């Protein structure tokens, strides 16, 4: 959960960027924001002709806030880098890339989405960070890499599966219990322990209601999206359609 102080600091920073854009009559970009940060600040900085959210592609998880003066639509300083890799003798994954990034001691706001596909690593970043990554981000888990700048914006197609679960209601504890295949009481303790996130925000209220499209993240279990209630069983319980990212 984003602390109030951190949120206030972020809002003040974005207001400052917005004022600079208006004063200088030029596009000004924030760093890459996490999904929870975006959800928090969106009511204060809604998408408009002068405010744009962009992370390289529409479904990007991390996005920048881009403040635009009139007539400057389409501006972005987002760049995608690609490094070809040979995983024949050494496999690398998301955690390896994140670990290598953190070892560089860069701010998380300096890079956007990244992922590993067969034969390549993709990394979204800012124009002003390209030379830094090209020079210093040269190794992942002892595997040497070399970055090349792409002219296009590839899309990370996240794999998922759709399945059904039987739940007592659309309360959060009922959903968590069904997803974890445990009791409501254990699910409630999991929630109260800060192990459950609703739409990327830590929730400690077991009675919180889940609505269509709600994202439920459970530490140690996975990330799910509640699609809709599709039918009712003969015993009066509900069948929920869920999507799980894998």
TrEMBL record:
Keywords assigned: RNA-binding
Domain RNA-binding S4: 170-226
Matching CDD domains: S4 (cd00165)
RNA-binding is among the record's keywords: yes
Record GO terms (molecular function): RNA binding
Tagged with keyword RNA-binding: yes
One Pfam family here: YlmH_RBD
Ranges that cross the membrane: none
Family matches, as Gene3D superfamilies: 3.30.70.330, RNA-binding S4 domain
UniProt superkingdom: Bacteria
Protein's name according to its UniProt entry: S4 domain protein
């Amino acid at each position: 959960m984003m602390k109030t102080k951190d949120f206030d600091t972020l809002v003040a920073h974005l207001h400052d960027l917005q004022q600079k854009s208006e004063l200088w009559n030029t596009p000004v970009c924030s760093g890459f924001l996490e999904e929870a940060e975006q959800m928090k600040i969106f009511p204060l900085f809604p998408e408009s002709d002068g405010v744009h959210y962009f992370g390289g592609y529409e479904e990007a998880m991390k996005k920048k806030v881009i403040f635009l003066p009139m007539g400057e639509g389409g501006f972005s300083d987002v760049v995608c880098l690609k490094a070809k890799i040979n995983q024949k003798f050494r496999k690398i994954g998301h955690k390896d890339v994140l670990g290598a990034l953190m070892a560089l001691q860069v701010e998380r706001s300096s890079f956007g989405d990244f992922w590993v596909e067969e034969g390549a690593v993709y990394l979204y970043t800012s124009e002003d960070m390209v030379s830094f990554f090209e020079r210093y981000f040269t190794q992942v888990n002892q595997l040497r890499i070399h970055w090349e700048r792409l002219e296009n914006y590839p899309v990370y197609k996240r794999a998922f599966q759709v399945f059904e679960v039987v739940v007592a209601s659309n309360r959060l504890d009922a959903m968590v219990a069904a997803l974890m295949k445990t009791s409501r009481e254990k699910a409630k303790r999991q929630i109260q322990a800060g192990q459950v996130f609703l739409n990327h925000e830590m929730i400690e209220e077991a009675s919180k209601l889940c609505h269509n499209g709600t994202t439920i993240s459970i530490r140690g279990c996975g990330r799910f999206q509640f699609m809709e209630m599709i039918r009712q069983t003969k015993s009066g319980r509900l069948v929920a359609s869920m999507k799980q990212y894998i």
